[in-house]
Every structure is written in structure tokens, then in C-alpha cells.
Amino acid sequence: MRKALKRLKEEAQQGRADVIIGKHGISSGVLEEIRRRLEDKGVVKVKALKTALKVTGLDRKALAEETAKRLGAWLLDVRGRTFVLYLPPEKRRKTSRRDNIRLRRLSGVTGRRKPWLRR
């Protein structure tokens, strides 16, 4: 298990940050976006701007720990103002493929090409 977590952490550190915490700090919108991505991918890389640290009054590690605590996620790594969160599979919401298709239909995303794009 430790090797798998280490591999996930390394993969997350290589790419760009998935979510950026801005001048409004740890708002409900930011938490919902992080939660959504955690449930989709399991691992999320989050970056906090300097203004987020000023607004919240927390240092970088405390901000990362607070975010992880609010989401019920594990804090894997903190490097500078960037940190990696992990949500174990047993804590993720189980959605079936059928549910995802139904949600896409309700939102109007069907995957069909527009008539003017057909060749």
C-alpha cells in the first residue's frame, strides 16, 4: 500500500495543479471542486496562492491540513504552497456508468456532433 501511495504522489507532483486556492481562501466552492475531483481521480494536486495564506491567516502546512480535514482526505505531501490530497476508495461515492450517462443526458451533454460539424 505504501508503494502505491508513493507512486500516486509522484505522479501527482509531476503535473500541474488541479485546483488553485485563491484570495477567497478555503471557500465552499473550492472544497466542492476538490471533493468532485477526489471522487473522480482519487488524487488531487492543490496549489494555494500567497493571498490565500494571507486571507486565512494559516501557514502553508496548516492550510493543507485544514483542507484535508474538512474533506476527510489524506494529506500525502506538502511542497511549498502545493500539496497533494488522496481519498481512499472506500470513502469515494460509488456512481455507476448508468448514473453518469443519465446525468449527462440531463445536463444536455449527449456526445453527439453538431449538425453543422458533420461532413
Layout of secondary structure:
Elements: H1 2-14, E1 19-21, H2 28-41, E2 43-48, H3 50-56, H4 60-71, E3 74-79, E4 82-86, H5 97-107
Parallel strand pairs: 1-2
Antiparallel strand pairs: 2-4, 3-4
Q: Can you describe this structure in just a few lines?
A:
The chain is of the alpha+beta class and 119 residues long. The chain has a single domain, classed as YhbY-like (Translation Initiation Factor IF3, 2-Layer Sandwich), CATH 3.30.110. It has five helices and four strands.
Overall average pLDDT: 83
Low-confidence stretches: none
Number of helices in the DSSP assignment = 5
CATH superfamily: YhbY-like
Strand content: 15-25%
User: How can the largest sheet be summarized?
Assistant: 4 strands, mixed
Number of domains: 1
| Number of separate strands | 4
- The coarse silhouette is globular
Q: In which order are the strands of the major sheet placed?
A: 1-2-4-3
How would you spell out the order of helices and strands? HEHEHHEEH
The helical percent reads 40-55%
CATH-derived architecture: 2-Layer Sandwich
How would you characterize this protein structure?
The chain is an alpha+beta fold and 119 residues long. It has a single domain (2-91), classed as 2-Layer Sandwich (Translation Initiation Factor IF3). Helices cover 48% and strands 17% of the residues. Strands 1-2-4-3 form a four-stranded mixed β-sheet, sandwiched between helices. Strand 1 (19-21), helix 2 and strand 2 (43-48) form a beta-alpha-beta unit. The longest helix has 14 residues, at 28-41. The chain is globular. The termini are far apart.
